[in-house]
Amino acid sequence: MAHYQRCLAHLLAWEGTFISSWQSDLGGLTCCGISYRYHPEWGWWEHVKVLWAERDGSLVDVSENVDLMAGVRKFYLERYWIPLRLDMVQSEELGMELLEQSVNMGRRRTVRRLQNILNALRPSKAQGDIGWITLTVDGILGRRTLTALSEVQLNNADLELVIGFMNAGQASHYLSRALEDPTQRVNLRGWARRAGFLPILGGP
To answer: Roughly what angle, to the nearest 10 degrees, separates helices 107-120 and 92-105?
Structure first.
């Protein structure tokens, strides 16, 4: 589980270990990246709402709230890590990227992007593509996708490409959101840092 803990730490460095409710955040009331709008079934909301009601500022730091943080770790493990089968991803850097993007943009969207990238890296017939199976872009990190990914992870240059294109796709998604919804444009600078396109100032 050490692999999961390190990837989760990376995620929380972006999401924060606090309760917030920013006007520009479509998720509404949020705790450590968990949005009430999208995950109203999470069992800790009553506790979170009490802490939010008692706040004396714009944020509520919950990093030292042992029980609540255990609930946060359990949520990300059960809702993202296990369904995505990220324990099967050998590269910790890629595991961090897949977890972070899945939480921020959705599991299937993230895996579909990964599958498209792996298909694009497929050798051409001139290079000899014997044994390479074109992946079905279904958003499921299944056996074939994991097999293709394991081959890529043997080559650092290919792995670097995968992570680079994952970030490029993330940036493109953010740009589309800002174009579709002007209220989200205030988030562009932070999103660009998250996708690796601007220097990280005080970030993870």
So the answer is: 130
